[in-house]
Amino acid sequence: MAEADVSTQSGGYDVELFVNPPDYDLICTICQGVLRCPVRSACHHIFCKKCILQWLRRQETCPCCRKPVNPSLIFVMFKLTKSIGRLKIKCKNEIRGCADTFPLSEQYSHSLSCLYELIPCPYQGCKVQLLRRDLDAHAPNCEHWRQPCHMGCGTVLTQSTQAQHNCYKELRQEYETKQRNHRAIAMALQRKMRRMQSTMAHMKRQIGLICESLEVMDDLHEVEEGVDLGESSSSSSGTSSANSNS
Ligand SMILES: [Zn+2]
Ligand SMILES: [Zn+2]
Ligand SMILES: [Zn+2]
Ligand SMILES: [Zn+2]
Ligand SMILES: [Zn+2]
Question: Of the four, 75, 85, 170, 176, which is 20 to 30 A from 103 by CA?
């Protein structure tokens, strides 16, 4: 277990990395770096875990006070690890142009996004090493550039096929044609509706006229009847007067 840890961990942090010179107490006497994963021996001396385990493989005495040290009696100092993690450091890519500073504990996450990190070109087969910030400029010139069509048609595009690939244009044309058709249908429906509305208005007017003429006819009828009555009464009186005259 301890052996595996030793092989994957490195010694202390380079003092030069820190924005402010680290406290003397935080320096490992074995590697002279800032304590990485600090552990304490029974004699209260503190070292990087890797450094002391390596040392104890050769001799089981403390490098500071020469007292015997039992390798199974060294303790990881979690609180100290945390406070060292809060110390501000400069980016290791400072010489390439990165001016960022951040807590030591964020070193790894910064390296994943640092624009001045040297990374291999992500396209398979390309051997170029470049700064992350130059990737966008490199991609259009990379012979090994491969990317699935972002429209999701499933085609993997290369530098040479990308220019001719037009599934996006085709999709857009299809969409625009459909939209034009829909607009035409909507307009035709609107025209039809306007025609029906005007027909209805026309019919309303006609019905109105028919009603009016029916009323006029009724009136006429009534007038005619009235005239008939009047005439008959006058004629009867006339006849009666004529009769009386004769
Ligand atoms: Zn050390
Ligand atoms: Zn000691
Ligand atoms: Zn950086
Ligand atoms: Zn490349
Ligand atoms: Zn496509």
Answer: 75
